[in-house]
Structure formats: structure tokens, C-alpha cells
Write a structure and sequence with these properties.
- The complex is a heterodimer of chains A (398) and B (132).
- With 398 residues, chain A is an alpha/beta fold.
- Chain A folds into two domains: 136 residues, 3-Layer(aba) Sandwich (Peroxisomal Thiolase, Chain A, domain 1); 214 residues, Thiolase/Chalcone synthase (Peroxisomal Thiolase, Chain A, domain 1).
- Chain A contains 13 helices and eleven strands.
- A nine-stranded mixed sheet of chain A has the order 3-2-4-7-1-8-11-10-9, sandwiched between helices. In chain A, strands 5-6 form a two-stranded antiparallel ribbon.
- The longest helix of chain A has 16 residues.
- The radius of gyration of chain A is 20 Å and the shape is globular.
- The two termini of chain A are 14 Å apart.
- The model of chain A has no long low-confidence stretch (mean pLDDT 95).
- In chain B, a hairpin with a 5-residue loop joins strand 3 and strand 4.
- In chain B, strands 1-10-9-6-7-8 form a six-stranded mixed sheet, with no helix packed on it.
- Chain B has 132 residues and is mainly β.
- The chains are: A alpha/beta (398), B mainly beta (132).
- At the A-B interface, helix 4 and strand 5 of A face strand 4, strand 6, strand 7, strand 8 and strand 9 of B.
């Protein structure tokens, strides 16, 4: 195969509160870090995918003015929490299409202290009732017909899994958060690096049952960037660059196909299943070949369903799979050894590249104290509600 | 006192009220509660109005304790399977705690009084309450 695309360089800023840095500082740091890691310069890059949801729609061009305006095309993309993965897909597709042999993707967000990111933005109330919108509503529906808050939406997704298969109770979901917070203590780039007991997690402030505060992804600031290269170009670079390069064995983006239920509650399952199935086919590997997984644990209740969606366990078997200890860092298939979104943090547009940085760093054997020994194959998964799902399978250079 | 339903798909004064009226695709039978240009399942453009069974089973829920300003918490949000039609709604007339709300419980449609506007018109919403 000569048409493989490889990660040549990748960088993630520390996640957390960056009071003295704006989105351009964070984006510059990520891109310059990725270029340095790749051993190339801005003028080597032929295409750029850029993601920044809570900011300027033309963020990519603004960032170029800080890192190098070389006249290359910039694609400013937006796909909710899958924005980073979408930016990366743009660079990969341009290389696969033969338009260039090297591309750059960056995702950036400043979200510290942002609070709830959705709910009740539809209608200003007051005056006489008047019907508006596609429901012909006369008032805000959030809180009157279900919930539009993300903790509430994802809580229902986890509870629905419990209804179908049993065993998924409050304590189980809290145990997943316990794992991810424990993992984060080994990640110096995580926004939170504190271990919590199960009791502390369950007694934390309730946001949307069964998700307490420490079971929700952490709003924070951060950026991540990747330089990707065609295999043909990679073979012309130094042996050291080739040794550290990470093969992108699969790169898939899906949207949610029609399901009866997804008309009233977002369905994050079907599109993840389709993305995973396609990714395993592309890569020629199966879930049993994976050494680590970074999946989209935007809430503890979401991580559970993705064990099943990504085929990490038998259908319906996610509860038993978790209870077996498999997904702890010393288990059979470590999941979210970075600490996950619950602890590492979730600067939305950065997330879909940061999860790839985590996996790539393990495959390179450069993950320090949290290194998964001998990791050769890993999977990174991200979900943007609405919905978009990105799945990437990465392999260590042979 | 004049009343107005919170959403167009809630009928509060016709025969059989309260009832929820879905828009059903003539092509494939997929049901929607909002206005659609074409069916998301089969892309047909014709729809007919159908009554949704006013009873169902709670497939999933959450108890929201933290919401946007103006939303009264805690409340129970869920998805009710009404004879095959998934419906989004609140579970009402039950204490909002996991001891009283359980997936699989049987519920029925009911109305919920909301605010009054400057012309004295009362808004009426809906929810689902436990049966028995």
C-alpha cells in the first residue's frame, strides 16, 4: 500500500485554565509543537484543516497570520465535538486525493468556566403567546419537554443501555469516572490530575442523574495539532522521522443514519457502530488487536455504551466488560488512560486531535509514566452531537 | 379562560384531548413531531396526521438538577415508548428521585399548566404520569 497517510508530527498543549493565552496563542503553540515534532516547516505544508467552535468563523486564517501565511488552502470546519477529527480528515483526504503530500490539522478551544453549553437559547419569552419554529412552540421547550442539556442527554443514553441490558446503575457509571480520574494522575497535561473515591464521585453535586459533576467532561482551554504526510513523501524523509511516524490505518467520519428513536433523543450508537465497523475493515484489524482506546467519555454514562459500540465487548456486555477490570490501565484493553474527557478535559475542537496525540504517544513509546507497554495498535473515537463520529485506528511504524 | 397548547402537536381541546398528534410519512410510516420538508428515513414529502397512543413505557430518563436559567429543577426528563412511537417528555406527578422513577414504568399522557400571557391566555404543556 503506497497510499497510506502517516502522522509525522503531533502536539497537544496542556489542558486546563490558560488565563494569559488566547485561542491564537494556544493554536500557535499546538501547530509549532507539531511542526517541530514533525521536523518540517509551515512552507512544507500544502493544506490546513482548522477547528474552533466558540470563536471566529475564519479562525484558520487568523492563525496563519501568527504561524506563517503561505497561501495554502484553509478549511475552517465545524462538527461539534468531532470538529478536531473533521479538520484532520480534511488534511488526510487532500493527501489521499493527491492534491498535496503534507497537511496540517489544528483544533482549539477556550472553554474554562463556560458552564452548560446548550439549553434554552430558542425563544425570548414575554408578551402574547405566538407559535414559532418547527414545533410551533409558544415558549422554550428545554425543561418543559425533556432536557436539552448535554449532561441530561447523555445521562439518558446511558440509562437506555441499562434498560435494554440491565446492570447499569448509578454506582457503575460512577465507577467509570473513578477509573478515568485515577488514570489522569499519571498525565501531566490533564486539566485535573486528582484521584477521587467512588464515594466522593457519587456524593459530588448532582448535575443530571446519574451524572454528578465529576462524571461530566471538564470545560477547559487547550489545543492540539497534527502534521500528516503521504507514505511516498515519508519515504524521502530521515530515518528518525520514519521511525517516529505513526500509520493512520483507518480514518472514518460518519453522521447518524435515520432511526426512530433519534428523532427525540440523539442516537450516538448507530453512527459509532458504523464508523467502527468501517474503520476495522479499512485497517484490517479487529477490536481484539487493540492495545489501547481513547473514546469519547464526555460523560461517564457515555463511556459505557461506546464499549459496546466500538465492539470492545460482546453486544449487550458492556457492564460485565467494565466490571472485569478490562478498561483500567492494567487491564486487558485500557480505555482512556489519558484520564478521558472527564479528567483530562474537553476543549471541544481540540478533543478530536488530542485523543489521537494520546494514542500516537503510546505507540511511539513516549508516554512516560502512563505508557502502555508495547502498544502497537490503538483507536481514537470522538462524537459530536447532532451527530458526527470520527474513528481513527493508528499503528506503530514497523 | 382561553388556553393554548405549548406545541402544535399537543391537542388540548379536540375530541380525545389531551392527545399528541404525530406527522407520519405516507411512504414509510416514520413519525415526527416537528415540521419536515421530507422524511429523514425515505425522503418522501407527504405526511398525514396520526394520534399517538396516550400511554407508554419509560425507556430512559434523567433527573435534571442543573439547567439553564428559568428552568425549574429538579425535574425528570425521559423518552416514553408509546406503542412503538418514541416520545420526548417530562415525567410528572411523581417525586423526582430514582426511588420513584424507574425505567420500564408505565405512564400516561397528562396536561401540565404553564404560564399566562398578557392577554390572559394560559399555556398548557404535557407530561407523562405514572399509571396506578
Amino acid at each position: 500500500m503506497t497510499d497510506n497517510v502517516w502522522i509525522l508530527g503531533i502536539h497537544m498543549t496542556a489542558f486546563g485554565k490558560h488565563r494569559d493565552k488566547d485561542t491564537l496563542d494556544l493554536g500557535s503553540e499546538a501547530v509549532q509543537g507539531a511542526l517541530l515534532d514533525a521536523g518540517v516547516e509551515m512552507r512544507d505544508i500544502g493544506v490546513m484543516g482548522s477547528g474552533n467552535l466558540i470563536g471566529d468563523p475564519g479562525y484558520g486564517q487568523l492563525l496563519q497570520k501568527q504561524i506563517g501565511q503561505t497561501g495554502i488552502p484553509v478549511y475552517n470546519v465545524s462538527n461539534a465535538c468531532a470538529t478536531g477529527a473533521t479538520a484532520l480528515r480534511v488534511a488526510i483526504m487532500a493527501i489521499k486525493a493527491g492534491e498535496t503530500d503534507m497537511g496540517l490539522a489544528v483544533g482549539v478551544e477556550k472553554l474554562s468556566g463556560a458552564g452548560l453549553l446548550s439549553g434554552n437559547k430558542a425563544l425570548a419569552e414575554g408578551g402574547a403567546w405566538a407559535r414559532t419554529g418547527r414545533f410551533g412552540a409558544i415558549a422554550n421547550l428545554d425543561g418543559r419537554i425533556g432536557t436539552e442539556t448535554m449532561p441530561g442527554v447523555f445521562a439518558q443514553i446511558g440509562m437506555e443501555y441499562g434498560y435494554k441490558y440491565g446492570g447499569a446503575d448509578f454506582e457503575l457509571f460512577a465507577s467509570i469516572a473513578e477509573k478515568n480520574h485515577a488514570h489522569s494522575t499519571l498525565n501531566p497535561k490533564a486539566a485535573y490530575q486528582t484521584r477521587f473515591t467512588l464515594e466522593e464521585i457519587m456524593n459530588d453535586v448532582m448535575i443530571a442523574y446519574p451524572n454528578t459533576r465529576s462524571m461530566c467532561s471538564a470545560n477547559c482551554d487547550g489545543a492540539a495539532a497534527a502534521v500528516v504526510v503521504s507514505e511516498a513523501k515519508l519515504r524521502t524523509l530521515s530515518l528518525e522521522q520514519q521511525r517516529r511516524a505513526v500509520k493512520i490505518s483507518a480514518s472514518v467520519l460518519t453522521s447518524d443514519p435515520w432511526q426512530p428513536g433519534c428523532q427525540v433523543l440523539p442516537d450516538i450508537n448507530t453512527l459509532t457502530r458504523q464508523a467502527a465497523t468501517t474503520a476495522y475493515e479499512q485497517a484490517g484489524v479487529g477490536p481484539e488487536d487493540l492495545d489501547l482506546v481513547e473514546l469519547h467519555d464526555c460523560f461517564a454514562s457515555a463511556e459505557l455504551v461506546h464499549y459496546d459500540n466500538l465492539g470492545l465487548c460482546e453486544p449487550g456486555g458492556a457492564v460485565d466488560f467494565f466490571k472485569s477490570g478490562a478498561t483500567w490501565r492494567d487491564g486487558r484493553l485500557p480505555v482512556n488512560v489519558s484520564g478521558g474527557l472527564e479528567s483530562k478535559g474537553h476543549p471541544v475542537s481540540a478533543t478530536g486531535i488530542a485523543n489521537i496525540w494520546e494514542v500516537a504517544t503510546h505507540l511511539r513509546g513516549e508516554a512516560g509514566d502512563r505508557q502502555i507497554a508495547g502498544a502497537k495498535v490503538g483507536l481514537a473515537h470522538v462524537i459530536g452531537l447532532g451527530s458526527a463520529c470520527g474513528v481513527h485506528i493508528l499503528e506503530k511504524a514497523a | 379562560m382561553p388556553q393554548m397548547s405549548l406545541v402544535e402537536y399537543l391537542d388540548i381541546d379536540g375530541p380525545g384531548a389531551p392527545r399528541l398528534i404525530a406527522s407520519e410519512c405516507v411512504g414509510c410510516g416514520a413519525r415526527y413531531f416537528d415540521r419536515r420538508n421530507a422524511c429523514a428515513s425515505c425522503s418522501h414529502t407527504e405526511f398525514r396526521s396520526v394520534d399517538v397512543t396516550p400511554e407508554g413505557v419509560l425507556r430512559t430518563f434523567t433527573i435534571v438538577h442543573f439547567a439553564a436559567e428559568g428552568v425549574t429543577v429538579p425535574f425528570v426528563a425521559g423518552v416514553i415508548d408509546c406503542d412503538g412511537t418514541p416520545v420526548r417528555g417530562n415525567v410528572v406527578n411523581v417525586p423526582p428521585d430514582p426511588e420513584h422513577v424507574r425505567t420500564g414504568m408505565k405512564l400516561r399522557l397528562t396536561t401540565v399548566p404553564l404560564d399566562r400571557d398578557e392577554n390572559g391566555v394560559d399555556a398548557v404543556g404535557f407530561g407523562f404520569e405514572p399509571i396506578g
